[in-house]
Amino acid sequence: MSCLVISNPRMMDHAPSETHPESPARLAAIEHRLETVPRLVHGMAEPARRSDIELIHPAAYVDAMETLRGEVGYIDGDTLTSPGSIDASWLAAGAAVQATRAVIDGDAQRSIALVRPPGHHAEPDRAMGFCFFSNVAIAAAAARARLGCERVLVVDWDVHHGNGTQRALYEREDILFFSVHQDPLYPGSGAVRERGAGPGLGYTVNAPLPPGMGDGAYRMLFDELLRPVADRFDPDLILVSAGFDAHLHDPLAQMRVSSEGFAGLCQVVNELADEHANGRLSLVLEGGYDLGALSESVAFCAEVLSGSTPPPKATPTPMEERVVSSLLRQHTEHRA
Ligand SMILES: [Zn+2]
């Protein structure tokens, strides 16, 4: 099975400060670790088309971001630009679209867009939380508008809630947004009752989990909540907002997922892609701030996407089972 990895070293030119956790070293560590994974095909990311970005972001917002091109700028305490940041953000959105196009056109069976800055906190008219353009929402919208897809499933397993993706897609019934995240944690949104609005009601699915949840809890949630959601929706494309900051070694959150655990989650979406979407699956990097944990987790996912045997299925501890069961009940009550 072929897996395409799309990136561009110019995304490392986004370097807002020496101490920022979303550092250029993240991409370097991943690229280095992926040298040990066989059967990957590498491709060079190009900047997004403005018309693709404007499927999600208003023209006035894109213009405002352009004024920061080449500049050192301050958006909020977490979100800063260096001279290479706006170039990098166009490449990040472009890589997400390219990776998506590759699996739709059949150039690759699976793909990974290794991008920064990440995207899932960027709202249509507001950069925040290290994010400038909503990379995955842009790719999903482009798949709908230009690439012939009917129904796109976005799975966000970054430990933070993907508020930007949710806001961009909240009233759409053609792109289903599923997020599992730690609660409480930045940015504070992502409650079960946030289920979409208008025609999109029921097409946003949030799974907030308390700190301390590990492989078994996540796997149970994917098997018992994501699977039935995907079966009902029947997507013809699956995109993953693949953040790795739910890792037990991550410094920004308190979850306990292992690198093997992420490979297990990747296997679930891999199977769902085979069952529903003719295998069309693309992972787009979001967060993940421990370099060793991040690079190992991406490598394990890349192995799953290239057809290696996945790790054994994780089972929940009794405590994890109680937590996830309670969450499943909340979902049943909100659907009623
Ligand atoms: Zn995150």
Attribute tags:
336 residues; alpha/beta; Arginase, Chain A; eight-stranded parallel β-sheet; 10 helices; binds zinc ion
Low-confidence stretches: none
Name the bound molecules. zinc ion
The whole-angstrom Rg is: 18 Å
Strand content range:
15-25%
Quick one: how many beta strands? 10
Q: What is the CATH architecture assignment?
A: 3-Layer(aba) Sandwich
Question: What top-tier CATH class fits best?
Answer: Alpha Beta
How many H/I helical runs? 10
Rounded to the nearest angstrom, the distance between the terminal CA atoms is 41 Å
Q: Give me the CATH superfamily.
A: Histone deacetylase domain
Task: Report on this structure.
By secondary structure, the chain is of the alpha/beta class. The chain has one domain: Histone deacetylase domain (Arginase, Chain A), CATH 3.40.800. It contains 10 helices and 10 strands. Zinc ion is lined by residues 158-160, 243, 245, 286-287.
Give a summary of the structure in a few sentences:
The chain is 39% helix and 15% strand.
How would the blueprint of this fold be written?
Blueprint: E1 3-7, H1 24-34, E2 40-44, H2 50-53, H3 59-66, E3 73-76, E4 79-81, H4 85-105, E5 110-113, H5 135-145, E6 152-156, H6 163-169, E7 175-182, E8 204-209, H7 215-233, E9 237-242, H8 259-276, E10 281-285, H9 291-305, H10 318-335
Parallel strand pairs: 1-2, 1-5, 5-10, 6-7, 6-9, 7-8, 9-10
Antiparallel strand pairs: 3-4
Helix pairs in contact: 1-9, 4-5, 7-8, 7-10, 8-9
Bound molecules: zinc ion.
The site of zinc ion (ZN) has 7 residues, from loops.
